[in-house]
Amino acid sequence: MSNSIQIIPVHTAPAYAVAIGGGLLPACGQRLREILGPCHAAVITDSTVAPLYLDTVARSLEDAGFAVSTYVFPAGEAHKNFETLSGILEFLAEERLTRSDCVVALGGGVTGDMAGFAAAVYLRGVRCVQLPTTLLSAVDSSVGGKTAIDLKAGKNLAGAFLQPAAVLCDTDCLATLPAHVFADGAAEAVKTGVLCDESLFALFEDGSLTAAPGEVIARCVAYKAGVVERDEREQGERRLLNLGHTVGHAIEKCSGYAIPHGHAVAAGLAIIARSAEALGWAEEPIAARIADCLAKNGLPTGTEYTAADLAHAASADKKRSGGDITLVIPKKIGVCALKKVPVGQLLPIISAGLEG
Q1: Whose C-alpha in 166, 189, 223, 325 is 20 to 30 A from the C-alpha of 138?
Q2: Which of 80, 127, 146, 274 is catalytic?
């Protein structure tokens, strides 16, 4: 085990814990047996992660007394859809999984969403465990219980809330990530710093994300856990976690999901920061500092798509309510606010944030 294990409790109903540290995948069986008891574990993963970690996880589960079934689907956001969901659900039914069993999501954000959604709707809900293998899923998507698939109209438009029974974040997995995949997760970490903590944001400016990823993950998870505890169903404060996502999701959709989530969110964050300054919503100059930080972490700060392209795509965003949409506005580093605007104002708002 490469480092000590940090435990972050999440006090939802039901409550669970996020374990963060090295060596957790080889030891996952015993840890999960203590939480779940022996049962049938259906491990869902994708074609990228399977060659790296599936055997390790399956062996650990079997050694701990679990009956294990495995399902591998093609990797990529393009497969986060009804066809993949249907395949997973049919697999769970063929394996005769029961409500006393569990689904194990092994992989990044797409796998966590797909397996979590399948667990939420199969038999109207079975237990799910998250084993994140990317920085993005570790700092963000594996915690909080939001699961979803994409529709033709937009990203994450069909989904369900299902809090995991446990999250085991093995930081050793980060060593296998290509640079662009690691950067994808850095976007959500930087977003968290902009939301909540000047000192956390400063870590990303001086390179501490790569030097001490376990500590950064723990701080991001602790912040998100607190938000989720106070607003589990995203009725108020939790909507702040969508900082950069309205424009980011629009960029993803415009690209046919060729641009990965974190890179799109980074561009969306930079754009909304420039908009906030240009429109007088920011309390201090922030756009250049945010853009510089994103660039230092290998992330984009703009997009080739026009304001009209992005406004059209964003008009179908799930944060829309009637004729309005709620944007997350950065006021200064560590302070953001929700702002409801008419959907018709998206075009000038996005235009104000595009680089010249």
Answers
A1: 325
A2: 146
